[in-house]
Design brief:
two-stranded antiparallel ribbon, DinB/YfiT-like, 6 helices, globular, Four Helix Bundle (Hemerythrin (Met), subunit A), mainly alpha, 152 residues, DUF1569, DUF1569 domain-containing protein
Length: 152
């Protein structure tokens, strides 16, 4: 999988364009989330990464293995389908498509602005210290995984 970084202009714009290809009736090729739930899931992940939301409910096991989890998040290989997620990111309730899409785009824009003006390492609530490149790659990789889930 080619490494791309969500905070870079071309990659960011490509992701936004891919989001705009989805509509309320878009169906996943795997998994149980609706497109609105996927937007909500990705927005929640992004907001936690941005620091605008706290990460709650992390198990002791996840805390102990955060170095391994970080390594997996910045791996060059694609995510496995139907991979278990952090409890905070599970989406069970139906969501409003337009509201969640706007929420995700706002969170992505805030992330890009944050990394555009930042220097040095960044602290992720679960993974710990990450370089700008690691953070940009990890967030792109996650979003890309879910965009592929909906074939965009």
């Amino acid at each position: 999988m080619e490494k791309r970084y969500l905070h870079e202009d071309e990659t960011f714009q490509d992701c936004i364009e891919r989001l705009h290809l989805l509509n309320k009736d878009s169906l996943p090729t795997w998994g149980a989330m609706s497109v609105a739930q996927m937007f909500s899931h990705c927005a929640e992940v992004q907001e936690v990464c941005n620091g605008s939301k706290l990460l709650n409910g992390t198990s002791l096991l996840s805390t102990l293995y955060k170095a391994y989890i970080k390594k997996e998040s910045i791996s060059p290989t694609p995510y496995q389908r139907n991979h278990k997620t952090h409890p905070q990111f599970v989406q069970l309730e139906e969501k409003d498509f337009d509201k969640e899409k706007a929420r995700l785009i706002k969170a992505l824009t805030q992330f890009k602005k944050k990394l555009d003006t930042a220097y040095g390492e960044h602290t992720h609530p679960l993974y710990g210290l990450m370089t700008k490149a690691e953070m940009g790659w990890a967030m792109y990789r996650h979003l890309h995984h879910h965009l592929l889930q909906f074939e965009v």
